Sequence to fold (436 residues):
Amino acid sequence: MTTSTLSLEKSKTGLSGYKFTRKRLLAIFLLVLAFIMLTQAPPNLESETTTTLTLQSGNVDDVAKIIIPTLPFILMMGVFFSITGIVSLLPAPQTERSSVILMIIAGVMVIPTLLIAAAAGNSTNIVTMLTESLQLATPIAIGAMAGIWCERSGVVNIAIEGMMLFSACFAFTTVFILRDIFPSDQIANAHLLALLIGMLVGGLVALLHAWISITFSTDQIVSGTVINILAVGVTSFVRREFLMGRGEGFVPTMTPIRIPILADIPIIGEALFNNKPIFYLMFVVIIGTWVVLFHTRWGLRMRAVGEHPSAADTLGINVNRVRWLSVFVAGMIAGLAGAHLTLEASGNFTDNMTAGKGFIALAAMIFGKWHPFGAFAGALLFGFADALGTRFQILRVAVPVQFLQMVPYLVTLVVLAGLVGRAFPPKAVGTPYKKE
Fold:
């Protein structure tokens, strides 16, 4: 064998040993972003240009604020992104740990950097954006909990979208009817009844999903798809034939509940402790889901049924009963998410108003690897991306509005394709169980 042949084989081995992992693909993205920042910022921004980040509501001249020199900040972050990308592309094992730390910091700083660049020469309110992010994340986080309850027990539930839409419709319809019955000072009673009806409707739709997919062992994805299509048709019919015929309009939304002392905490106080009831219920659902899953006998049975149903059956656990109850609870949770859209967020109902939030909730669940706190983190990411798109529109970024409206969905694709890594669902999810 000649020397040239040996060297050729060695070079092939070296090339094949270098793998383009998710981290390295993200490193390439950072390098491209850094190149754009370093080449486009200097000719388009003056050195005196600043970005003002306000920390309170009110006149920008009278509130606490942070003034950032835009051009130096963008150049500094461009250099940092470049260093992070180069270090992450190096195959040396000794740089592995430092590259991970740098990637985490860079990932956290990407969105603030884009926001500061977009607000160059203007001001933007950080507290308002944080509040919007949390509010937009609320139905996604609650929907993700519904997905966890289903899939941890072994049932695929892509019908969260339909359950949310059913609930949003009937919760709104309830308040729409009762607003003429209850005095204006008692509208909170109508909201409470509407919330309960919305959750009950979500639970009933979930029972339909359980009946089709568990009792009749129908493909669970097909069952969920049918429910989503049914929800679009039924809710559109209700709106057209009932609501529009009675002078459809807006109804009062739920009244915010301000928690004394805590609401006065700078920056986070207004965002976390001066909100509407379903926002607070979101934290109850998240913590409750975590407690039930990992600290109760029922949660142990759920996880056993989702991982090894035959082994659970051998121990005397009624597999299908656990799945039925879990799907029903998931439906009620999804109903809570749907009620948020009409009772808290908008005070109105429109056709297909969920706009894919049920599917984004599933993405948040996968992002969190079927853990309540991880799914909540994913929901916050998607909520912040949605708020960022809205903020870009307010700042009049020179991008067509249609592209800005795509931001949360693009983030969903990027997260699932590049950031999640290897996520392993419960082993028996999607598999009907028949007792032998």
User: Anything to note?
Assistant: Residues 185 and 219 are 48 Å apart (CA to CA). DSSP finds 17 helices and five strands in the chain. The two ends are 62 Å apart (CA to CA).
